[in-house]
User: What shape does this take?
Amino acid sequence: IITFGFFFLLMGTLIYKSINTDFQLVAPNYYEQEIAYQQRIDAINRASNIELEIIATSNNYLKITSDDSIGNGIIYFYCPFDNSADFKVELNLTDKKQTLNIQNIKKGKWEVELVFLKNDLLYIIKKVIVL
Assistant: This one.
């Protein structure tokens, strides 16, 4: 009888705690963010057929070339080991190439994300480079 009483008391406590636990979404506008994330995935898929090459040259320059005329946009540089080093640069590949001075950039792994509009559609190209 004591064992059954203890079991029912334990179950009652667990049910009471589970009913009174407040479950919140990670963000208050979770659903809007999910729709925006799907648009981001679509932009990455759209850009999958665009050939783009990013090469770090020996004289501290980053050379970006493309077969397609991409135009203007933004290049985001993300440093996985130091987020304070993150920065962005304007993208201008109208002549299918762009050169950036990387002399003052930390050496190591960088995640590069090119974001641009082409024919009123968003495109996102992600690359990983090592400087």
